[in-house]
Design brief:
Layout: H1 47-69, H2 77-85, H3 89-104, H4 108-129, H5 132-143, H6 152-167, H7 177-204, E1 206-209, H8 221-233, E2 241-244, H9 247-256, H10 260-271, H11 283-299, H12 305-310, H13 318-350, H14 358-373, H15 377-380, H16 386-401, E3 403-407, E4 419-425, E5 428-436, E6 448-453, E7 456-457, E8 463-464, E9 467-471, H17 487-504, H18 520-523, H19 525-535, H20 537-543, H21 555-563, H22 569-587, H23 599-608, H24 624-627, H25 637-655, H26 661-672, H27 679-687, H28 694-699
Parallel strand pairs: 5-9
Antiparallel strand pairs: 1-2, 3-4, 4-5, 6-9, 7-8
Length: 703
C-alpha cells in the first residue's frame, strides 16, 4: 500500500527540494542540510521546529503565488504553470518529514502538532485552489495549450494542473467557497483523529498469559519467543507472554491457538477496536466524514463522493467499479462457502454442536492446510528469513532493470531501526531507500511505501533523486532467531518494494507527475506485479534459503506452496471484496444519511450475502484506508489493478523468460514515466493489447 502524504496544495505541488531562508539558523529547516544527497538531517530536527517551519513555508509560498498573480506579463507556461509547479519548497519539505514521521514515530507531541498544522495546511491549500486570479492565469494557458508548442510532459502538466484546480473548487460559486473551505478543514482534522484513535486502540489492548497458560495451546516456539520478548519489553506486563493486535502477533495466534475461548477474546479485541461506546469510538467521526465528503462532492457538481473520486481514475464511474467487484464476488463467495462447510465439519468433531465463528476460521484454515498439503508456517518460515527475502527482491530488480543496492549506514536516519541504501544504476546513484521493518508502539499498523522527496528536475536543470521509504510491521527477530517471515509477509515485502521501484526508477521533469503520482486505481499495479516474482518457483529457488544451513528451499516444499496457492482464496478474496464494496457503499450515497454503526455495515454486508463466519477485511471503525489513508472510494483499486498485474506477469510467462530483457525495458518505461503519459496507454503499449481478467481468476482459483 502506498501511503499518501496529506495534500499540500494540489497534486501539482507535492514534494520538492529545500529552498530555505536563513532567518532562524536554530531551525534546521531554515538552513542547508549539508548532508549526502541533501537528505533531511533527522538528528537535528526537534518537535519545536515544525510549527515555525510550517508557518514560514506557508508564508513563502503565498509570496510566490502573489508573484505569479501580480505578473504584468500575459500568462505563459513558464510564468504560470511551471512557476506554480516550482513553488512551495519549504512547505513541501517540512510536510513530508513531519507527516511521514507522525506515521512511524508518533508521540503525544507529534499528535498535538498535527492537530495544529493540519488545518493550517488545509486552509493554505484552499487559498491557492480558490485564488481567482491564479486560476484565471492557469485557465488562460490551458485554453491556448494547443498553440504553445509544448512537449508531451509539459502538455500533461498543463492539463493536470487545470484539472486539479477544477476538482479542488476553482469553479464553485463564490457564495459556496466559505463552506467548501470549512469542509476541507473539518475533514483534515477528522481523518487525522480517526487514524490516531486506531493507533491508540491497537496499542491499548493485548492478551497476557502465564507460563502455565500457554502450555498445550499449539503455539510455535517462534511465537512464544516473540510473545515472551514483548512481555519483557513492557514494564507494566505482569505475565510471561504478551500477544498484541499487531498482525505478526495476532494472526499466528488465531491460526494456531487450540483454545477457542482465547481465540474469541483476542479476535474481539481486534474486531471491536474504535466501536461505539469505546474510549476511541470512531463511529461519529465516520458519520461526519461520509456526509462532509458527500456535501463537498455535490458542491463540486458530482452526485456522490465516489463519482467525484472516480472521475479522476481509470474506472471513471461507480457502476464500473461495482461491476468489476461483483464479477469476482460470486465465484469468491461460492468458494468461501465451500471452505466454510469443510471447517464446520472439523469443528463439529472437536466440539459437537458448535457453530463456526469468525475466530475459528483462521484456525481451521491452517489446520486443514497442514493436513491437506502437509504445509505449515513452521516449515515455511525457516526458508524465508527477512534478509534473504529482501535480497531476493533486490535480485529481481537487478535482473529486470540492472539496478543495485548499496547499504550506507552513514546516511541520516529517522529511526535507528531504519536501514539506508544508495540505489545505483551502473555507478550512478538514482535514489535513496529506507527500509523500516518491525512494529513499535509509535508506528501505525500495516505496510506502506512513502517518500521524503520525489524525483524531479530542479530550476537549474539538475536531476533531484528521490528519497523513498518502505515501512512494514514484520515479525521481530528474537534472541535465538532472525526475523522469519511467513509466505504472506514475503509477498508483502515484494509488494511494497514494487511501490518503491515505481518511485526510485522515475525519470520525469515535474515532480507532480513523477513516480507514484498516478491514478489511484493504477498505483497498485507496479507493486502487485512484484508478488508474482516472489511466488514463482524459479525465483524462490534463488532467494528462499534456510536461515541456519543456507540450503535452498527444496522442490518438495515449493510444490506444497504451489499446490496450496489457491487454498483459502475464498476467504481471502471475499474479505477483500467485502471491504471494497463497503467502501463504495459509504461513498456512493447521494443524499445526507445518518450513519449508524453497526447498522450501516451490517446492511451493506447482508446485501451482498457475506456469510457471518467472515467479516470484512476492515470493519468500518478501523478502516484506515478509507477514513484516514487516502483510499476513499478507492479500496477497489487492489482488485482493479490485480487484473493488470496478473495480465502483465502473463507476458513474461508467455515469453518463457521471467527476466525477458525486451519486456523488462518496456515495463521500466512504464515505471519511469509516472503520470507524464496516460497510464493505460503505457500499459497497452507494454502488453500489446487490452488486459484480460482470466489470468487473475486462474491465479486465484476462481475458475
Amino acid at each position: 500500500m502506498k501511503k499518501n502524504l496529506p495534500i499540500i496544495c494540489c497534486a501539482a505541488l507535492l514534494l520538492s527540494t529545500a529552498c530555505k531562508n536563513n532567518n532562524d539558523m536554530d531551525n534546521p529547516f531554515f538552513g542547508e542540510w549539508n548532508t549526502p544527497y541533501d537528505i533531511p538531517d533527522f538528528s537535528k530536527i526537534k518537535t519545536e521546529h515544525y510549527m515555525p517551519a510550517f508557518e514560514e513555508g506557508i508564508k513563502q509560498q503565498k509570496a510566490e503565488i502573489d508573484a505569479i498573480t501580480g505578473n504584468a506579463e500575459a500568462p505563459t507556461f513558464a510564468n504560470t504553470i511551471e512557476a506554480l509547479e516550482q513553488s512551495g519548497d519549504l512547505l513541501n519539505e517540512v510536510s513530508a518529514v513531519f507527516f511521514n514521521l507522525a506515521e512511524c514515530i508518533n508521540s503525544p507531541e507529534m499528535e498535538k502538532i498535527a492537530e495544529e498544522a493540519t488545518p493550517l495546511v488545509s486552509a493554505h491549500s484552499d487559498d491557492i485552489m480558490l485564488n481567482a486570479k491564479l486560476f484565471e492565469r492557469v485557465k488562460a494557458v490551458y485554453d491556448q495549450r494547443e498553440s504553445l508548442g509544448l512537449d508531451g510532459e509539459q502538455m500533461r502538466l498543463v492539463e493536470e494542473t487545470y484539472k486539479n484546480f477544477v476538482r479542488n473548487g476553482a469553479n464553485i460559486p463564490a457564495d459556496k467557497q466559505d463552506r467548501f473551505r470549512e469542509i476541507n478543514s473539518l475533514l483534515a482534522s477528522l481523518t487525522l483523529r480517526f487514524g490516531n484513535n486506531v493507533l491508540k486502540a491497537t496499542n491499548s489492548q493485548s492478551m497476557t498469559l502465564s507460563e502455565e497458560q500457554v502450555k498445550d495451546l499449539g503455539l510455535t516456539d517462534g511465537q512464544l519467543a516473540a510473545a515472551k520478548e514483548a512481555a519483557e519489553a513492557d514494564t507494566n506486563c505482569k505475565e510471561d507472554y504478551k500477544f498484541t493486535l499487531d498482525m505478526p502477533s495476532w494472526e499466528p495466534f488465531m491460526q494456531n491457538c487450540t483454545d477457542r475461548n482465547l481465540r474469541k477474546t483476542l479476535w474481539e479485541y481486534y474486531a471491536n477496536r474504535c466501536t461505539p461506546g469505546t474510549e476511541t469510538d470512531n463511529s461519529t467521526l465516520i458519520d461526519s466524514i461520509v456526509n462532509l465528503r458527500l456535501e463537498r462532492a455535490q458542491i463540486l457538481g458530482f452526485e456522490s463522493h465516489a463519482a467525484y473520486t472516480l472521475d479522476d481514475c481509470l474506472a471513471k464511474t461507480p457502476d464500473a467499479v461495482y461491476q468489476c467487484l461483483m464479477d469476482l464476488w460470486t465465484p469468491a463467495l461460492n468458494k468461501a462457502k465451500q471452505e466454510r462447510d469443510e471447517y464446520q465439519k472439523m469443528l463439529a468433531k472437536d466440539e459437537p454442536g458448535a457453530k463456526l465463528q469468525p475466530w475459528d476460521w483462521r484456525y481451521y484454515c491452517e489446520k486443514l492446510r497442514k493436513e491437506r498439503y502437509a504445509l505449515n508456517d513452521d516449515e515455511i518460515r525457516p526458508y524465508f528469513p527477512l534478509d534473504k527475502v529482501r535480497e531476493g527482491a533486490f535480485t529481481v530488480a537487478n535482473k529486470l532493470y540492472g539496478i543495485t543496492f548499496r547499504e550506507n549506514n552513514k546516511l541520516p536516519k529517522y529511526h535507528p531501526e531504519a536501514i539506508s541504501y544508495e540505489v545505483l544504476d551502473g555507478d550512478k546513484v538514482i535514489a535513496i531507500l529506507y527500509m523500516d521493518f518491525f512494529p513499535r508502539e509509535s508506528k501505525r499498523s500495516g505496510a506502506w511505501m512513502t517518500n521524503f522527496r520525489e524525483q524531479y528536475i530542479d530550476k537549474d536543470g539538475n536531476n533531484v533523486i528521490p528519497i523513498i521509504s518502505m515501512v512494514c510491521n514484520f515479525t521481530k527477530p528474537t534472541k535465538d532467531k532472525p526475523s522469519l517471515l511467513n509466505f504472506d509477509q514475503s509477498e508483502t515485502l515484494f509488494h511494497e518494494f514494487g511501490h518503491c521501484l515505481h518511485g526510485m526508477l522515475s525519470q520525469c521533469h515535474y515532480r507532480s507527475l513523477s513516480g507514484t503520482n498516478v491514478p489511484r486505481d493504477f498505483v497498485e499495479m507496479p507493486s502487485q506485479v512484484m508478488e508474482n516474482w516472489c511466488r514463482h518457483p524459479q525465483v524462490m529457488k534463488e532467494y528462499a534459503r534456510h536461515y541456519k544451513t543456507g540450503e535452498a528451499i527444496p522442490d518438495s516444499l515449493i510444490a506444497k506452496i504451489e499446490a496450496a496457492g489457491t487454498y483459502g482464496q475464498g476467504f481471502i478474496n471475499t474479505e477483500l471484496l467485502a471491504a471494497s464494496l463497503l467502501d463504495m457503499d459509504y461513498h456512493s450515497i447521494t443524499k445526507p444519511t445518518k450513519i449508524v454503526l453497526p447498522d450501516f455495515e451490517d446492511q451493506a454486508m447482508a446485501k451482498i450475502g457475506l456469510i457471518p463466519e467472515i467479516i470484512s477485511r476492515y470493519k468500518s471503525c478501523y478502516f484506515q484506508h478509507i477514513f484516514s489513508g487516502g483510499y476513499s472510494a478507492g479500496y477497489y483499486s487492489y482488485t482493479w489493478t490485480a487484473i493488470l498485474d496478473a495480465d502483465a506477469f502473463e507476458a513474461f510467462r508467455e515469453s518463457g523468460d521471467l527476466y525477458n530483457p525486451e519486456l523488462a525495458k518496456k515495463f521500466r518505461f512504464l515505471l519511469s514515466h509516472g503520470n507524464t503519459i496516460d497510464p493505460m496507454k503505457m500499459y497497452v503499449d507494454f502488453r500489446g493489447k487490452q488486459p484480460s481478467v482470466e489470468p487473475l481468476k486462474r491465479n486465484r482459483g476462481l475458475i
